[in-house]
Amino acid sequence: MTTTEFEKYLKSIGGLENGFYTDRPVIVSRHFCNVRDGWLQLIHDCIAELLEANWNKHILQIKEKFGGLRFYIGSGSEEIFNIIIKYEELSWTTCEVCGEQGILRNDCGWQGNKWYKTLCDTHYQDLIIERRQDI
């Protein structure tokens, strides 16, 4: 899913409500999601399923942490939180760059730092080559 497609979707549902700042305009920008493009489809699908479960569209944060998707809301039913857990778990097997099948990897840092990323083999190899060039 492209940024344009994702933002078109957000606009089509009337945007998301900022859970921290209710006086701000609705969120219709992809840049609210602090993730790479490979997870936009997961986020789209998560939002769609949450809306079917009568979610109020209040979002606090969407980001990557320790190689996985994090989707933070204020409150919701058990059903809503189970949907979020489902998509967070799917992120551990979805490349955050391209959206293809990925693996959670714990050796993506450099200079002794341990970073976690979920990457397909191609993007993992690209990262390894990039790290070698930084040395």
Characterise this structure.
The chain has 135 residues and is an alpha/beta fold. It has one domain. It is built from 4 helices and 7 strands, in the order αββαβββαββα. The strands form 3 sheets. Strands 2-4-5 form a 3-stranded mixed β-sheet. The chain has a two-stranded parallel sheet with strand order 1-3. Helix 2 runs antiparallel to helix 3 (78-91). It starts with a helix and ends with a helix.
- Average pLDDT works out at 92
Number of helical segments with 4 or more residues: 4
Helix content: 25-40%
> Strand arrangement, largest sheet?
2-4-5
State the end-to-end CA separation.
Answer: 34 Å
Subunit organisation of the chains: single chain
- H and E order: HEEHEEEHEEH
Low-confidence stretches: none
Based on secondary structure, the structural category is: alpha/beta
Let me know the largest β-sheet.
3 strands, mixed
Large-scale geometry? elongated
Please tell me how large the radius of gyration is: 16 Å
Counted up, domains total 1
